[in-house]
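Re: export button greyed out
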Amino acid sequence: MSDLATNTPPDEAVIEVRDVRYAIGGRTIFDGLDIIARRGRITAFMGPSGTGKTTLLRLITGMAHAERGSVRVFGDEVSTMRSQELFALRRRMGMLFQNGALLTDLDVYENVAFPLRAHTKLPESLIRQLVLTKLHAVGLRGAARLMPVELSGGMARRVALARAIVMDPDILIYDEPFVGLDPISMGVICRLIKQMNEALGITSIVVSHDVQELSEIAHDSFLLSGGKVVAKGTPDELRRSDLPEVRQFMGGLADGPVTFHYPAPDYAKQLLEEAP
Amino acid sequence: MSAGAESAPVATLRRIGAVAVFLWRIVVQIVPAFAKPRLIVAQIYNAGGRSLVIIMMSGLFVGMVLGLQGFDLLQRFGSEDALGVAAALGLLKELGPVVTALLFAGRAGTSLTSEIGLMKATDQLTAMQMMAVDPVRYVVVPRFLGGFVAMPLLNAIFCGVGLFGAQLIGVSLMGVDTGAFWSQTQGAVRLDDVVEGIIKSVAFGTACSLIAVYEGYHAAPTAEGVGLATTRTVVTCSVLILLIDYMLTAAFLTTS
Ligand SMILES: Nc1ncnc2c1ncn2[C@@H]1O[C@H](COP(=O)(O)OP(=O)(O)O)[C@@H](O)[C@H]1O
Ligand SMILES: [Mg+2]
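Workaround output, generated via the alternate export path:
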């Protein structure tokens, strides 16, 4: 699986987004976006909700195509790939969706086995071994026969993580892995992300707005706002930044360059107006 | 979204085109989908099993009504013995395929749509794409084939139970001779009649399954979107069933 990855020396850019423009439903989401994720590192994409973080992941995985600019993964341009090439690329990526996205008609074991059954002709005994190993790694070997509805939010995400790593990907992408979790599950996921990165050397992308958690695990981070990168660096560098956008986001301030009020007519004038 | 901007006929044409394109996507994946026959069998069972009870109950009642109405009509001409023929032809050529399809659309069709729609709303379809698995092959095609196969089987069951219901009324209640009931039926029903019913049923099965999976796959990925898609499945299927029924009936009458 890692044949191509070994062609890229350490610190080489595995994901490279250059000057990307993308619009959906007549709304420009990105204009002039530049992002880099280096091999073997944990890179964080941060930004307020609705900035387009998930959209950026869709661009990287080839689910959506940029109108302008280039998106390269392992040095290959994603937007010009045919579906066969895209599928080949995606087999080297694992993705953890916001709510786990486990297949509801399969139990935990079969969910983790799913990519193996789809792409390999491994004997059942080997599949079993791989699945149990990955489930053990996320601490859920005992939950193998539970159905997705029986899992808590944190457990579902861990199962999804086991599924995402079962094909030994070179890149792991986490979309908002901490949202809606209690502090304990959050810590567990946080540790797992770090472990996957350190033990397996997987290049990791973490999308989140959890500044606290991210600063513990991320090596690099990008703060997105208004369609481009407003700041980049280590989480600690961002914390010390003087840029108002960065200070607002990192400090969780209600008002700043991103305004608290949605654009509206003048308050006093609107109150005094006669009701229609 | 764009529905407001274009006129109804244009929107309808666009939808027909989209459904046709989707049908093509399904057709090219049918052979690859047979690599996992268990999925298809499970969906035949699913579509059939879901509708079996309602089909049998409705078949029984429709047959019993046919028994009552048919007897009332035929005795005016003194030909109660033909009750079996009347019921059999009515069921095989018309009521069986149409009522089965309408019930199927309401029961199995809506389940298909909401199931696929919910999978979409919870990112399961995107997750499959991320795992380099084509959701059309893995999710849509087995469900389409399940409905396609289940419909004629359900139709056969409906007709069988219906005939039993007609016999129940005619023979047990109204006193029609059992021998006459069945021998007349055997003598008068031709192979053409059976084939007509089967062809209709296959056509309805294709249309209903196609609409159901199309609506599910293209539902807006929200609770509201899935609800809307489910409603559209019932409405579109019902209209289509009656439209196709008219066209096929007219075609059979002109060719025979
Ligand atoms: N299919 C779509 N049609 C129209 N707008 C969309 C669609 N998908 C996403 N958007 C818009 O794109 C913006 C970015 O969405 P998203 O990438 O999900 O943001 P984030 O993940 O950062 O919260 C949002 O404002 C959303 O409303
Ligand atoms: Mg998002």
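Residues 1-8 of chain A have pLDDT under 50 and may be disordered. The button fix ships in the next patch.
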